[in-house]
Every structure is written in C-alpha cells, then in structure tokens.
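Schema walkthrough. Field components (list of strings):
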Amino acid sequence: MRLAELRVLVLRSQGTNCDAETAHSIRETGAGAEVVHVNKLLRGRRSLEEFHALVLPGGFSYGDRIRSGAVLAKLLASRLRRELQSFVEEGKPVLGICNGFQVLIETGLLPFGEVGEPMLALAKNASARFEARWVHLLRGAATPFTEKLPRVSRMPVANAEGRVVLPLGREQRLLEELEENNQIPLRYCSPQGALAHGEYPLNPSGSFADIAAIATPEGNVMGMMPHPERAFHRYMYPDWTRNGAQGKGDGYRIFQGMLEYAAGRL
Amino acid sequence: MVPLREASDEELAEISERRQLALNLEEMRAIQRYYRRLGREPTDVELETFAQTWSEHCVHKTFKGVISYEGEEIDGLLRSTIARVTRELSPEWCFSVFEDNAGIVDFEGDYAIAFKVETHNHPSAIEPFGGAATGVGGVIRDVLGVWGEPIANTDVLCFGPLDYPYEKLPRDVKHPRFIFTYVVAGIGSYGNNIGVPTVNGAIYFDEGYVGNPLVYCGTLGIVKKSKYKRSARPGDVLLLVGGRTGRDGIHGVTFASSELEEGAEETFGTAVQIGDPIEEEKIKRAILQVREEELGSAITDLGGGGLSSAVGEQAHRFGCGARVHLERVPLKYAGMKPWEIWISESQERMLLIVPPSNLERVLEIFAGEEVEATPIGELIPEPRLEVYYRGEKVAELDMDFLFSGLPRVKREARWSPPELEEPEFEMRDLGEELHRLLAMPNIASKEEVIRTYDHEVKAMTVLKPLQGVAWDGPGDAAVLKPLRNSWRGIAVSCGMNPLYGKIDPYWMAASAIDEAIRNNIAVGGRRIALLDNFCWGNPEKPENLGGLVRAAKACYDIALAYGTPFISGKDSLYNESPLGAVTPSLLISALGIVEDVRRAVSMDFKERGNYIYLLGETKPELGGSHYYKLRGFLGTSVPGVEPSRARRTFEALTRAIDLGLVKACHDLSEGGLGVALAEMCFSGGVGAELCLEAVPVSQEMRADFILFSESNSRFLVEVEPENAGQFEALMKHVRFARVGETSGGELVVSYRGEELLREDIGELKRSWQRGVAL
Amino acid sequence: MKWEVRIAYKRGVQDPEGETTLQALKMLGFEKVERVSTAKLFIIEGECSREEVERMCRRLLANPVSQDYEIRRLAD
Amino acid sequence: MKWEVRIAYKRGVQDPEGETTLQALKMLGFEKVERVSTAKLFIIEGECSREEVERMCRRLLANPVSQDYEIRRLAD
Ligand SMILES: Nc1ncnc2c1ncn2[C@@H]1O[C@H](COP(=O)(O)OP(=O)(O)O)[C@@H](O)[C@H]1O
Ligand SMILES: [Mg+2]
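Field assembly_structure (string):
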C-alpha cells in the first residue's frame, strides 16, 4: 500500500490538545489523518476498523483528573476492549504520545499488548512540577517507530506525570524482561549519548531506568513521553538559529517509521 | 422593589454601600431621577444591572471621563491619547481596534491576529491559584469572543520581594512567596490544560507589589476575517454556552473597582473562583466549529458583570433590545435569586447569538463536544432590556439610559515631580557588580517558572522564550508561525519599567513602549501594534491620576512618533491595599510581523571572532536603573526616548536582519550594556572583549555608568567580519559603533587600555541562574 | 508527632475533579454514584504543635479564602 | 451512603509533592518537620456497597502498581 492511502486515526477526547499538530505531522509525512472524538467510537458512529493506524496524541484527556490518561484509558478498556485488542493483534501500529503514553499504560496495552490491569504506572515527576524542556534520547530496542532515528535524537517533553514506575520489588526483573524483549526503544541521555542515570534535568521526570518510551514485544504499540510532532521540522528546534532551520527533525522520523511500517504490512 | 425615589442622599449612599453596588452618589442620583421619571421603584435586578454596566471595570469611567490637569480639560483620556494614536495613524492593516474584546490586525490573506491583555489583580491577591488561572481563562475567552482561535498566551507578573519579612505583613495580605508560587501554578495549570502555549512574559519584584500583586494575562488568536460575524438582528437567539451558573464571582466587577480593604476576604469571598480549563477547551472546539460553518451572528464572552453586561452590550451594539428568561439559565445549585443569576461571573461561559434557523445545528455541535448550550432569550426590536423570571418581569430598562445615562465623571489630576536627588557614590569592582546585577530578581533567569509552562504545544513556537546553545538564554520576544503552510510569523514582546515611574510616569511609559518595540525589532518583528495595560491606584486621588495622565500622554507622543498604533488595552485602577497604592505600572505588549520566520534572530552569540556592534547612544541615564537600585539609590536621571533617532535605528536594524547580516541581537534593558552583553555570552557559550571607550556616548561618562546606563533604543548586534562593510553602510544614519569582538570563554571589558572586568561566562551564568527559585 | 491535614475547596467552589470522576464512574457502569468530591491530605511528621501546623496551613498548604482545612492528630 | 477513598503512593514509590512540601515548609522556618507525605481523597456518595467502591478503586481510582487505596465508610 502506498503511504497516501493510509488512514490514521488521531483519537481525541475532552482535554486532548495536541491532536491538530499531530494530524498535521501525519499528513506532512504523506498519509491521511483524521481526528475523531472518542464519543464517536463509543457510540458506534465510527469504528477503529476503518483505520490503518491509531495515534493517541498529547494533552490532558479528561483534565488528567484522577491520574493522567486514566479516564480515557478506562473508557477504552471497558467499552472498546475487543476492537482495541484486535487492532493491536492485527499488528496495526498504535502510537501514544505523552498523554497517549499514559493512556496506553492505563489500558494495560503497554507493556505486553493486553488490555487489562495496568502493570506499570506513570507517576508525578520527581520535581513535583510540570516540565517543559527538550531532552536527548538514546535509541535502544528497534521498533518500527524508532528505527529511522539517529542514535541520539532530540525532542521536547511537556508533562507533569512522566515518571515510569515499575512494580515495587520486581523492578529489576521486569526491566530485564523488557530489555530482553526489545521493549525499551528510547531512554533519556546526555547530548553525547550517555544514559542520564536519573540525573535531572537530563531525565526530566526521574523515570525509572531513564525510560522515555516503551513498546510491546511485537513492537507495533509504542508509548513515548516526548512529543515528536513538536520536533517535526528543524525550525521547531530550540537552537535552530545556531544550526539551521532547513529540513525535517527527529520527530518526523517517528511518524515516517510508523507509517512506512503500516504501509509495508498492508 | 427597592425604595429609591424618596431616598435622601444619605440613604442613596447607604443603598449603594449595603448592596455592594460601588455606585457613587451622583450615579445613584441619576438612577433616582430615572425612576422618578418612570414613576416607579427599581427592582433589585435593575439596580444590579446599573451597578455592573456602570462599573469602572465595564465602562472605564476614568479613562472616558473629564479630567482637569494643569489647567487643561482632558475630554476622555482614552480618546485623546491612546485611541488617538490609532486614529491619526489609521493604518489599513488594523482590522478591528478598541471596539471588540480584542484588537485585531491583518496577518496573511484571510487571516488576522487578535491580541488582548487583561489583568486579574484582586482575585490573585486573595486566591492566587484561582485568580491567576481564571485570568488566563478570561483572556482566552476574549479571543474566542472575536471568533478567534487562541494560539498563545503571555503573562507578566509583579510581586513583592520574595524575602519580605512575615512580621511586616498586614492581616489578610498574603506573603509574596505564597502569591508567587500559586500564581505561577495557576497560570501554568490553565494554559497547559487548555493547550495554549505560554510564550512570553516577565516577572518584576518591588515593595509596592506586596499588597497589590499584579497579574497580566494575554492571549493571541487567529481570526478568519471572512468568518468574523457581527450581524445580529432582532429575533436572533441568545444562547448561553459552557459551564453552569453559580453564585461565584458575584460582584467581581464592583470588587475590581474598589480598594482592597481589610476584611475583603469575607466581603468578596464569593468573587473567588478556581476555573476549569477543560470546560473551556470544549467550548473552544464548539465555537470554532460554529465559526467554520458560519452559524452565529455574534459572540461575546461572559466576563465582568456576567449576563447583565454581555446581553446588554450586545443588544446595544446591534441597536436593538433583548429579552431574557433567567429561569432557563442552568444553575449549579438551587436557590439562586434572579439578580444573582443575572450578574454571576461563573467562569467558562460565553454568549452566542444565533439566527433561529441555525439553532438546531449549533446545539448539535455543542452536544458533540459535551458542552451545555441553552437558549435563554432573544434580541427584540424595541430598545429595551427585559428580564423575566418564571414569567414575572424582574427588570425592564431603557437601553438608551442604561448606556448613556451614566453621568460622566469629572476628576482632578495633579502631578508634581517627587523630591529626589542624583546620588554620588564610588565605583566598586565592576566584575562583582555585574554578578550582583545578574542575580537581582528582576534580571535573573526565570527559567524555573518558564519551564512549568508548556510553551510549545501547537508546535508553532519557532523562537522560544529560552534560547541559545543550552536552550536557557533570555530571549527578547517569541516568534510564532501560526500557519502550517506559510513562513510568515508574528513576534510577541513586552515592555515595562515600574522603577522609572517612581521618578516620572511619562518616561516610564515612553520607556515601556520603546522596550516593547525594541524587543520585537530585535528578533525581526516589524509593522508593530501595541497594547496598553495600566495598573494604578485609586484615580479619585488627584496625585494618582496625575501620574496616569502623564503616562497616557507619553503613550500618545511616543507611539505616534514610532508609527505604532494601539489596538487594545485595559486599565485596572483602584489597586490599593492596607500598604497603600500599587507601584504605578504600565505594561506595553507588542505584536509584530516577521516576514519569514527563518530569518528570526535569537540573542545568543553564535561564534568566536565576530564583531560586536552597539546601536544607539548611551547617556548618563541611571535614574531608576538596576545599578542604582543595587547601590540603594533611585536617582532622577530617568532614561528618555528620542523617537526620530530611534526609528532610524529600528529601521536600519530591520534591514540588516532581512539581509541576513545579523547573527545575534539583544536589546539593552535592565542592567544596560553589561547585563545584555553577559547574557549574550553565556547564552551562546561564547565570550567577548569589549572596549568601553568605543561606546557612543552623549557626553563624557564614568565607566560604570557607560556599562550600566539604561538608555533606551539600544541593541547589541553580532556580525561576521565579512559582512561588516555592508552592515556599517546600512547604519550610516544611525549612532553606532563597533565595540568589541566575540572571543573565548570570558567576558573582558576594558576602558582606555585598562582592564575593568574579566569574568568567566559560566560563572556569570551561575549568578544569573541563582536569582529566582520557584 | 504525626498530623493529618485535610484540605478541600469550600462548598460552592467548583470541584472539576470530583465532577469528572462522577462522570467517569457512571460511564464505567457505576450508576448508583450520586456525588463525588475530592480533597487532599498532607501527613506531617515531626515535633510540631497544633499551632504550628495551623500556621503551616495558613502560610503554605491552604488558602482559607477558598479552602477549608482540618487538622487531626494521628497516632504515632 | 458516603464513602471516603484515600489514594496514596505506595511506600517505596517517591512522593514528590510530599518532598517539595517538606522543603517548602523548612524554607518557611518550620524546621521541626521531618517528613511530609500526601494522599488524595475521593468522597463518594450514593447507594454503593463496599465491594462496588473496591471495584471503583481497582478499575479507575488507583493504579495498583504505584498506589494504595483505603476505603472508609463515613457517617451520612
Ligand atoms: N512569567 C513569564 N512567563 C513567560 N515567559 C516569561 C516570563 N518571564 C520571563 N519570560 C520570558 O523569558 C525571556 C526573558 O525575559 P526577561 O527575563 O524579562 O528578559 P529581558 O528583560 O532580558 O528581556 C522572554 O522570552 C520572556 O518572554
Ligand atoms: Mg529584552
């Protein structure tokens, strides 16, 4: 299938606020994108099946009340469970950005692709603050989303709850498992590519093991804290006045990877 | 019914007081005469309507009244100063000025940019989180109220010193640290949640803000001119959309038009609100859809005065009347009285006017976004405001009297220069002084605050508030690229100089304008439009008003000379607390066009071995400077502005930027040359060598004065040596000089062969970053 | 000593989190819930008197204009 | 019926808000405070059984990885 024939669902709910630029990014990468309100899915007016890929954009779904992403996630998990599960099992790509990452964790889809009880959490940043800053990301496990990235890429984060927490007492074991399964595609690092080791602000949230993104073992579902749509063009970079405004940025490569993968398997 | 016709003057005053109407005796008498003519008594709903519609907050009595000042009769300060600039310039690119909730200027094709800045001072003093948050929410609604899509926020905040002793705080005055913390949290929370980036602002600290913190909130939006509907007619439906109406915010405008006295918390406790950004985000989506489908005939926000102001003003605007049924208004809880419903200022509500044939589709759009939308009445041909509650008429007012019956206020204004002296003191080690200046709270890095605000959501922020090699240098203005398929951008900047006002408000205003403009020019902005926001003490005190008049006069003189029209603004008077009047503060916000955002210039030095130019003339103008303040002085030599010379500088610099000759540019403001240079160095990770004797001065000056004078209209510019000839040719008619070169890791300043200062730029940065911790 | 400080918005001040929670619970099938409100707790340990905790509330933790606070001593 | 649900980070999971509050209190001169932790309360009204409230916690209000919940019946 050609990229242009792909139809990507950018799912929004009340409080989603990065849907427009995310849809733009998809279109500029060459695919079709449609922003659809979750209520349309819940009421059966639209269906996941119509689409080749799903993106859960950033924002504050339902005001991030209770916990970031929790309300939207629980609605999806309880009312669209089957559709969502089969979408994932068909191998269609699902990308959660920031709030979307939180949603994917709260649905249980991350880390192992099963809708159900969450096995991870995204907790309040260690600084107890909202953190809006650019970070460096070290590419780890290969996923369709990240394979086109350079070893060290740059994107901005903007969140209050971005600290990945693993189940107490089982952190090391689960971490090893995630690593073995190639499930940690991005980690916070220094400009030179050395792991952040929790150091602030390289790792802006205090995320466990510097985890910035998590994917399923199959690799078609990924959640990431940084915002690729805000690093899509070079002119969006915080230092383009030093290094030039021309060309695409690292964020573009995330969308490109996702879409080429979707096109390739159809 | 309220017995008014037979009331004595004392009784009139007592009624106004007891009902918190904030109407003065003359106004009460005008109302009394009206009812004597009608031959009946007013209802409480009617009285409240007058109180709202005639409040300082809603009609700007002072700015529209008659002021006598130094033998001169000023017939409408707004009209004869601020708005007059725009009238005399009347640029064809001004789409809508002073008439709407926000000023609107052309951008590109069918697109225009709306900009509005508001203040939310009193609420923020009392409930800083909620006050600041609803300040953001309110100004965003101003932009929605011109069918605009909000794209960016600004915030300028003024607090007392963060180390202010607790013992000195009067009862009911919250500590500056408490206010600072929660105001910042409130701004961030609302802006981040609703998904509008906060891209520009400033923070000032001064003793005068202890009792009167100031919170200025601005919003920019994109307007489609062809979809800007203002065509309501009788028969059109009044549609109330958004959150439910509660008792909150009752008497907010009368509150804003009164001084903050002890016990204000109890009296005005209901004026406090927290806000719900998600509700507003939903409203925004629905309104933009209604706009796209062109289903509405008018729109306005519900701000001060709630329904009573919004309905009345809209009907008045379209030359008709309105009929409203208050029992249709969805309430948060039962038991509200009709007048409470009528004037409630519950947040997150808007008023749409919709032709009946479009109503069904509009309701469907709102339902789709999970927003309540309720028809509450309609416009009627008769020029009357009729309000019903459960079938009973609770108010019937003549539109004409309501909108033109307000007796014009007459006020006295007086100003005499304060008795001040120019200080005499010895120069100390300039390296140390520079470190201390950089750490002064007004100058120090605000990064901790800025990073709690999302400044990039929407992916339009091309030049960010923080710039440079480590993304942490202090930018002069933000540049946004509002359209995905166009390189045209806008530059947003601000200027404010509260310290200068303590010497002369005229030069304070002139300097604020100059600063806002030069910040904008520095990044590549042009065709600049201005907004003014006055925060002053009680204007009934002639000394307060005198300063205000002087500032307004400067706005006229300077903005006209610069060719920069005002497009909107606002005044907040009565900023008084048990500690006295606020430090008079004029914020100027500037909106410029950037032809191609790829040519925008950041302030960080880019490379070693480049030339450093200083544009503009340095004068012994240290009155109100941070250098004086550091040494404990105020002084008298407040910076002036010479518009014709400055304009030449601005224009030449713009040409140089367009030709790509400018590698970095920073304006000189607080802390003057020394601070600006240090900022450019540590932001770029590049040192500099500066020869002070090369600086163009107006007269012989001490080295420390050259280094720290705050003369206006100056820039530092980095230019590559191979472009020096072309750059200098462009500057032919400008006072300028090459003052140094970029170099290694140090900032070195010499004067006539003697080294005055040699500092490591990393150390300078550390001093600057230590200044203000959240 | 161990103190529990409970802070809630005063009645009449909006509680969007409570409202969203109510909606969400209903959408998840908990139909019988009628009202949800929220509050926040600070558990403070240290040798502080009740008066000091009061002062903490007024200086930092709560805003008496919009919020009510309640202080409770907990068993150590 | 009226239930109070208390949600807190599990022991062992960092409570950043508690930590910053501790620092802030110390900065304000409350030197004797040793530890601050935070929790959130949901007050739920309606004809629900304890089991239902349990279910609300598991299905929405708490994340079992990072948070503990406690349910308490309040007097009506
Ligand atoms: N409260 C604030 N909100 C948003 N941006 C801010 C705030 N304070 C400062 N900034 C941003 O920080 C940068 C530097 O501001 P400031 O410290 O006032 O510098 P300068 O006086 O040198 O122009 C600007 O981009 C400004 O918009
Ligand atoms: Mg500046």
